[in-house]
Specification:
The protein is α/β, with parallel strands linked by helices and about 170 residues long. The protein contains four helices and six strands, in the order ααβααβββββ. Helix 3 packs across helix 4.
Amino acid sequence: MKPKKGGERKLKKKIIIGVIVFIVVVGIIGAASGGDNNTSTTNNTATEATNNNQSQPAEEQTATTVVATDFIAEFDKNQLAAEEKYKGKLIEFTAKIKNISEDITGTPFLSLEPETAEEYYFGTTIQCFFKEKSELTSLENGQVVTLRGTADTQSLGIIGVKSCQVVQ
């Protein structure tokens, strides 16, 4: 017996809807774990920069010192211009720790705000990603720290900084 044409249409419709839902879910998961993919891209950029500048190892490259409030203000003023200016560049800045956590892929990070931020600061923040959790275990929320890392892009009011290290 052949199934009725109406049944075939319903089955095809369910399959198409299922495929669309699957694609959307995979897209959401991919976007949520974008920090991990960006790490790879940033590491490649840092490696290329190191290879182009053989006279200095990556650890000894000179970082551009930025003031966190000015850095954030540049992104708030014009995200595209700020990304063009900073993306892939080694920066060093001092900021206040807002949160110590890890993303859904297990990558540890600090959420940071300007040193002068009030108790209930809800502006643009900096998210600094680390390779090891052990680098963050001695830190506390509210502490002011100096960090070094490679600037990335801004998304949803969060400026990403990859391959971070605590300087002080």
